[in-house]
């Protein structure tokens, strides 16, 4: 890739590079040594290393890095793309930090085509010191051009960020299109949908960029032109089938329009292309569960646990949802294994133990162990009383909320009967009645308050 930077800028960047703090995320010491040597030859003295994504996250939390260079293949838990996503989601790096991914040419085409949160650049192996320098210079120069935009965005001053984008747009190439992209997203965030639609139509008149089609669909959605928004996003999916964010938005539109199975189908298409995105898999799991497709829900939640196990992305609701699905499939042994894993990975947490005990009760009841079911339920109720009226699902993500836990408790109470059921079920049904798909069946109907 050619770098179009003036001599004056190059001299400025060469001087600026000496002060940069760099984190290199690679598995093998020999690879780190090689990159450290390259960076040292460019005058960078402050080079740190991380052998795993977990170590990289800890370092980013403790230190401020100007540049992060990560191998795409890091360890079993995350790859370089996922590391970038988690760093952004947890706000561990500012927008001004340069993030670059090292990958092979073959992997590049697979990774770059489905990347939803793109790095500043990809370094295709093998590369020379000169190529590394050129890519870093280009990324730093772009960060410099957008410094005011990033500063305003991080302060949540969106109107000022939009004005800063206008200043970049007025300069013309090479950063005009990127400034238009950022401004369009800002306008949609500000709910200035009419202005956003006009901006995206202007961009699309020049070239049919996927991000502009997506932004246009979001602006139409904001204007409540749902049919038009769906038509635009369906066209985008046809023309750019690897632009994964389009499937997510199509699914949200379909569900809003009362088409849950069409929403599920859209998400499944995206999952087939990129199965390792745990955030999307969570959404697939929940919508499949609501649709009664427990086989798909099980596959989705298993994938979520595979990608998040042992990481900060791991959540109580992931285990609870998978156990719930297993029970719906009458796979009691597998449900128990999920709860054992929940206790192992989230031990010492009262909310986790509460959920585990509720599922212990449900599993025991399904196996005809009524006394054990009642004992587990009573222990769960004791913890619930300590937690207060209702459980707050710590770190619950996606659209899953604590109301599911109340429904699980109601099922457990119904199964064992007695005073616990009389006391707890009305509260739980009140929670479930906010979502018809969660209402508790009693005898031949639904028990209402």
Please provide a written account of the structure.
The protein is of the alpha/beta class and 449 residues long. Helices cover 65% and strands 6% of the residues. The chain is built from 22 helices and seven strands. It has helices at 7-17, 29-41, 53-62, 80-89, 105-114, 129-145, 147-154, 158-171, 176-189, 193-206, 210-222, 226-239, 245-256, 260-273, 278-290, 294-308, 316-328, 332-345, 350-366, 370-387, 403-416, 419-432, and strands at residues 21-25, 46-50, 67-71, 98-103, 121-124, 441-442, 445-446. The protein has a five-stranded parallel sheet with strand order 2-1-3-4-5, sandwiched between helices. Helix 11 (210-222) runs antiparallel to helix 12. The relative contact order is 0.05.
Give the tags.
alpha/beta, five-stranded parallel sheet, two-stranded antiparallel sheet, 22 helices, disordered C terminus
Topology of helices and strands:
Layout: H1 7-17, E1 21-25, H2 29-41, E2 46-50, H3 53-62, E3 67-71, H4 80-89, E4 98-103, H5 105-114, E5 121-124, H6 129-145, H7 147-154, H8 158-171, H9 176-189, H10 193-206, H11 210-222, H12 226-239, H13 245-256, H14 260-273, H15 278-290, H16 294-308, H17 316-328, H18 332-345, H19 350-366, H20 370-387, H21 403-416, H22 419-432, E6 441-442, E7 445-446
Parallel strand pairs: 1-2, 1-3, 3-4, 4-5
Antiparallel strand pairs: 6-7
């Amino acid at each position: 890739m050619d770098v179009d930077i003036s001599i004056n800028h190059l001299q400025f960047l060469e001087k600026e590079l000496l002060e940069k703090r760099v984190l290199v995320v690679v598995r093998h010491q020999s690879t780190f040594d090689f990159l450290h040597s390259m960076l040292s030859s460019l005058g960078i003295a402050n080079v740190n290393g991380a052998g795993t994504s977990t170590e990289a996250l800890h370092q980013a939390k403790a230190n401020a890095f100007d540049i992060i260079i990560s191998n795409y293949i890091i360890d079993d838990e995350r790859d370089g793309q996922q590391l970038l996503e988690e760093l952004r989601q947890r706000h561990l790096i500012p927008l001004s930090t340069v993030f670059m991914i090292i990958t092979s040419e073959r992997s590049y085409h697979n990774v770059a085509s489905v990347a939803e949160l793109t790095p500043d650049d990809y370094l295709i192996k093998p590369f020379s010191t000169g190529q590394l320098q050129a890519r870093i210079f280009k990324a730093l120069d772009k960060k410099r051009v957008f410094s005011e935009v990033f500063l305003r965005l991080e302060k949540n001053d969106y109107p000022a960020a939009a004005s800063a984008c206008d200043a970049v747009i007025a300069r013309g190439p090479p950063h005009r299109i990127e400034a238009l992209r950022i401004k369009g997203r800002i306008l949609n965030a500000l709910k200035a949908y009419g202005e956003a639609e006009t901006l995206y139509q202007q961009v699309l008149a020049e070239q049919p960029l996927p991000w502009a089609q997506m932004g246009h669909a979001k602006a139409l959605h904001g204007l409540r032109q749902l049919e038009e928004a769906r038509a635009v996003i369906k066209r985008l999916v046809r023309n750019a089938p690897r632009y994964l964010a389009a499937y997510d938005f199509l699914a949200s539109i379909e569900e809003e329009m009362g088409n849950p199975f069409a929403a599920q189908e859209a998400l499944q298409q995206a999952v087939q292309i990129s199965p390792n995105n745990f955030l999307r898999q969570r959404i697939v799991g929940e919508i499949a569960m609501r649709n009664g497709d427990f086989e798909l829900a099980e596959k989705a939640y298993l994938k979520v646990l595979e990608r998040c196990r042992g990481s900060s992305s791991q959540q109580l609701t992931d285990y609870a949802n998978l156990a719930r699905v297993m029970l719906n499939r009458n796979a009691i042994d597998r449900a128990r294994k999920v709860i054992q894993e929940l206790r192992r990975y989230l031990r010492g947490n009262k909310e986790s133990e509460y959920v585990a005990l509720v599922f212990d009760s449900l599993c025991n009841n399904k196996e005809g162990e009524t006394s054990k079911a009642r004992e587990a339920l009573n222990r769960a109720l004791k913890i619930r009383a300590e937690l207060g009226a209702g459980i707050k699902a710590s770190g619950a993500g996606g659209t899953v909320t604590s109301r599911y836990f109340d429904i699980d408790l109601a099922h457990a109470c119904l199964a064992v009967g007695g005073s616990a059921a009389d006391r707890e079920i009305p509260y739980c049904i009140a929670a479930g009645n906010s979502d018809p798909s969660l209402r508790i069946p009693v005898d031949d109907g639904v028990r209402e308050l």
